[in-house]
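Objective 1.3, modelling of assemblies. Example input:
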Amino acid sequence: MVGARLAMDLDTAQVSSIFHFATEQGRTILYLEYINIAICLGFFLTVAWFLTFAVIKFRHRAGDGEPHQYEGNTKLEIFWTAVPALIFVFLAVATGIVMSIVNPPVGKRQPDITVIGHQFWWEYRYPKSGVVTANELYLPVGADLMLEIRGADVIHSFWVPDFGQKMDAIPGHPNDLFLKPIREGLFLGQCAEYCGSQHSLMRILANVVSPKEFETWTKSQSKVPAPPTDKVSVHGQELFMSKTCVQCHAIAGTKATARVAPDLTHIADRKTIGAGVIANNLENLTQWIMDPQQFKPGAYMPNMRLTESEAHDIAYYLENLK
Amino acid sequence: MTDAARPHQTFNWLADVPEYHGLWSWVTSVDHKQIGIMYILSALFFFLAGLTLAIIIRIQLMVPMNHFVSQDAYNQIFTMHGTTMIFLMGMPLLFGFSIYLTPLMIGARDMAFPRLNAMGFWIFFFGALLLYFSFVGGGAPAAGWFSYAPLTEKGFASNPGVDYWALSILVMGIGSVASGINLIATILTLRAPGMTLQRVPLFVWMVLTTGFLVALSLPALNAAIIMILFDRLLNTHFFSPAQGGSPILWQNYFWFFGHPEVYILILPGFGVVTEVIPVFSRKTLYGAGFMAASTVAIGFLSFGVWMHHMFATGLGFWVLWVFALSSLLIAVPTGVKIWNWIATMWGGSIRFTTAMLFATAFIIQFTIGGLSGVTAAVIPLDWTLTDSYFIVAHIHYVLLGGMFFAMIAGIYYWFPKVTGRMLSETLGKWHFWLMVIGFNGTFLGMHVLGAFGMPRRVWTYPYGMPLVTGLNFFSTLSAFVLAISILIFFWNIGYSFVKGKIAGDNPWDAWTLEWACSSPPPPENFDRLPPIRSRRPLWDLSHPEESGRKPGGQTS
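Predicted structure (tokens):
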């Protein structure tokens, strides 16, 4: 049931893979990956060839006596110690080079985006524009970006396979991740460090868009939504502010300012609810508000015991925040 | 074979040895052979438990968005699977082999500290039961076998699962340290006259190294576990960042134990293969000196690679790079072993008994596991692949395709010595081929799953990804084949224990001392020992002309 609803969103996403880089960093890492695959394949085929040859050629046949006994050859031992050692030193040097390209020194540079992993959703803050959003990341193609990765509660890990590097989100230990997106599209990722009961449903939807679209998106996200005017929305807002919703959620331009749970200012623009669990529409949001645990057992949002019409009005209000 | 090699008449099987009669003789035993057997039987029992959990995991992941078990149950299951396979299967299996074989191989009557030996086993056994009691005693642990803080703190794991985990790992850890010290003392002090360190079988070299690794690395884990217990029970803040603790500190402690642990598990497996391959190739071990030296090198290096489990935690460039270098270098002595095993087979007259088949499959599977390990040491690649199914494939190629295949080779090889009866070779071949197919089918595709973005420890995955769905489905089917092969193995053990062919003292025409006493060996092992002039005393007995030609024996 849950999955069927999610499938709609994934149809538009690309198959994720580390071979399908969407960032400059992913491309650089992939070169090293090919070198490494070549070395490993070479070593494996050499071992496999000698082993297969030995298995076929030297198997016991009827009438064989005890074979000639010999104990080793120091030159050969040195050969198969030194050659791999040289290859591995080469790999270590290549590792250092790629590391310093992909992860340059930070210096005084300030992050473009702060990513905060929560149990079990992602918060994204854009310090330059002041935009705060959740679960769906927007990045402009071609920009050299520095992301600061933080953990709010336990350790998470920010991983979009097409972007290359993953980075742990550790409470009290902010990390930096450098991304230069080179391809537009919707890329799927998810939390990669086991973080508790809903670890597998802590998804990332990363949208790489053109700089122009990104600007439009930033503008629309920075806008404070107009106060509701129609009757249902007004009722929905009243409920939102009087029930416990405001304890955790924030909506710009209202008295809801809590930062415990996802910012809902522009929730209507998002594709999914619950970090990629279900598609975002009025009916799903109503069901989610009535009982989030049916979709995401273990999530911190409790069942508020609202009636269906109350939940509908809140959802209606939220879906009209623009 | 001369009379010197047959100090006792041949016993048919264990129950014929009067000292081994009845349950009480086992419970009160300080005999290394009985304790070794109890370790191995416990390990096989917990292997079945861990396998059952693994099958549940595979059924859950068979199709996308499956609801075979709940997410919370799944998290408990993979935590218990990992913990079981490392601490309740791997550790007792290697201790069982080491404790059973080491005194026999060096010509000793028993371990250096027989009572400590018994304590080590029973403390392990009850620690293991305590862990499984958590299922009925308030909830099994669900923080992973690595129990990363702060997920283990009271605020995030309020049920007692983590307490059960910590207490049982702690008591088992204390038992393991005792056993490690016992093995070191035994090997260093109880070798028979003539059995110099250059002449002990390579298995004993590897056990000695393992003993040091156990004695030096497990205290780090035990200390860290006491800290996590203090955090949970006494409200200290070692690992809780909100109060100034450091979750990275836990990772450092855990992997300072955790990486040597991998070598603790694999070195005795190397040892088994190093005994099996020469005997069935009918050739002395190639490059024995390099084998021993590379073992010691692995032992030292294994204490300097732990941070490769933490490459994605954002540590500084030089720290990371140095650990990448050491992690790559540890592959060198490991590669030396692979070449020496192949060189031992080269020019031999190889008999493909089930034991030899498993040892051969071990070489190729362990090579794959080693190479995926090299891949994970190259930091930028680790950044892309860590915490994905690629690493699941890697650890299973190292520990199941490597360590466990080696130990099965050892079971087929030494079962005749332990019980006096042969395991069925027909069942053994069925077991082998089904297990090779099942194992590789289950885990080979996981390398690809990881590269295509499937993280570890996920309860399910979305629809709409044909490759991920297909590989998971195939993996689950193969896991059933793997499970069937294990059932054949257990049937073989049970059946052959009662009805197997009588083995005799030395059915494989092997060379090390354990084959000089009866099968099963009598309570105090040896009345008289054959003269020990080389690493292969029994070969010297049957080839007197060669040992005459080479005084001092084969020492390098």
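Helices of chain A lie at 2-10, 24-57, 74-102, 211-222, 231-242, 282-290, 308-319.
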